[in-house]
Each structure stands twice: as C-alpha cells, then as structure tokens.
Amino acid sequence: MNSTPRPSIDAKRMVVFDDVQQASHHVADEIIQLVGTKPSAVLGLATGSTPIAVYEELIRRYRAGEVDFSKITTFNLDEYVGLSPEHPQSFAAFMRTHLFDAIDVPEHHTHVPAGVANDFLSTAELFEKKIQTSGGIDWQLLGIGDNGHIGFNEPGSPGDSGTRLVELADETIEANSRFFDSPDDVPRQAITMGIATILKAKRLVLMAFGAAKAQAVADAVAGPVTPDCPASFLQRHPNATFIVDRAAAAALPTEA
Ligand SMILES: N[C@@H]1[C@@H](O)[C@H](O)[C@@H](COP(=O)(O)O)O[C@@H]1O
Question: Is the distance from the beta carbon of residue 45 to the nearest atom of ligand 1 less than 6 Å?
Fold first, then answer.
C-alpha cells in the first residue's frame, strides 16, 4: 500500500509523477500521439528549463523514426522585447537550440512572437490572427513562474487578455537573470500570448517541477480563480492538466 498522501485533486486535472523524466516522457507521448493522429497539429510551445526534457524526448523519438513533424505548425507563448531571434538569450534561439534544429518542422511553420518591432500592437494582432488562420492551437504546453505566471502573464493579468506587450515582474527578472550575464541585461518587457489566447487552445498541459513551484501550483489548482495567480485561470478550461513532481505537489490539500 502506498502511504504517501494523495492530493485531493482529480486525475484529469493533475498527475503527480515520481520524477521529471517520467513526467516528461508522459507529456512527449501525448504530443506524439496527437501528431500521429493529426499530422498537421498546431502545437503551442513554451520555453524555460521545465520543458527541456520533453523536447529531448521528442527529438529522441523523431530520430528513432517514430514521429514526423514536417506538417505541424507551432506557436510559442512569448519573447523578450528588444531581443532579435538571433540573440542567444531570445526564446527564438532557445527553440532552435532545444527543438527546431533537431527535427523536421519547416522553419516557416514555427512562430515565436517578434521581440523587435516598430509597432507591438499590430505585431500582437498579427500573431493572434495567425493562430486563428492556422485553425487554432490543438495542444498547448505551459510552465509556471514561481509567482504563478503563465507565458509572461504576470500577476494582475486579466482573464480576457490577448497577445500584448507586458512589463515583467521584479521576481521574474530576478529568476530569469540566471540565463544572462547580469540581472541588468534581462529585458524589462516581453510580448506574450494573453490568458484568453491560452485558454482558447483545445488542450492545455502545464508542467511544474521542484519545491519552488509548490505554492504557485497549489494556488493555481486549489485556490480561487484570480489575476493574482494567472495560472488559476486554467480552472476555467475543460481540458487542462497539471503534470507535476512530488515536490511541486507538496503544498496541495491532501485527502484525509
Ligand atoms: N516566460 C517563461 C515561462 O513560460 C516559464 O514557464 C517560466 C518558468 O520557467 P522555468 O521552467 O525555467 O522554471 O518562466 C519564464 O519566464
């Protein structure tokens, strides 16, 4: 018998894995199954350290000949303002390094919001339009910030927000400074899909690992739906699942 207390959240909404590898394989399997049944699937992708093992597994399975990504379309959640796609810390560069360069997705099928633009309002509108004309996002991957942000929708982001220019929270700048030479180099603004953009995806999978995410996960899954915790809006989605490890599940209410 397993004596570990189980979170009192139903299995459709949250799955707790023993380790990151198992969780990542589970998520990669879901993507591969979708692309197997719908080769032209539209995938929403995320950056950050959390999804890296998923991308590694997708690459491994692609090299093994188990999946063909040549017809998929991808949309990324966000990009730093001021960083061109060539900048090594841009999310566009992250995606090339961790996934796109290693699989057969055509470059023109991949979309990362532009971090350099004359007019971010029309850039954001164009991004939304491209998602719509592609048929909408079938499957969206998400990470979560320690403060509950999804994409770069920081606390305070309204549920009806679309793709837009946003200011980064101090704690996000601090958390992401590990990727830059100095905290002063971290951009202060970003362009991000909005909460409403994200909620339009047919399926949402949010991954969270480690104790630093535990409070944000508990607030998102078991707290009130509020802009104070942007990930809590996932409670309004009929097909959203949190994939977490034990440490990230530790602050959830448990079954008696
Ligand atoms: N904009 C991204 C998010 O999409 C990501 O989910 C989050 C967590 O990152 P990590 O996975 O490295 O903890 O922070 C970043 O700032």
Answer: no
- The dihedrals phi and psi of 153, each to the nearest 5 degrees, come to -80, 100
Q: Is the alpha carbon torsion for 234, 237, 241, 246 positive or negative?
A: positive
Strand partners, 14: 242
ipTM: 0.96
Looking up tokens 């959830």 gives 252
Q: CB neighbours of 180 closer than 8 A, spacing ≥ 6?
A: 89, 186
Distance 172 CA to ligand 1 centre (A): 9
What domains sit in the chain, N to C, each tagged with a CATH number?
14-199+211-244 (3.40.50.1360)
Residue labelled with tokens 């802009």? 227
Looking at the CA of residue 192, tell me the nearest atom of ligand 1: 1
49 lines ligand 1 (CB under 6 A): yes
Block means of pLDDT (10 residues each) for the chain, 256 residues, are 55 90 98 98 98 98 98 98 97 98 98 97 97 98 97 98 97 91 94 98 98 97 97 97 97 76
User: CA distances (Å), 11 to each of 18, 40, 59, 125, 141, in order?
Assistant: 15, 28, 28, 36, 18
Predicted TM-score (pTM) of the model is 0.95
Place of tokens 């570990």: 4
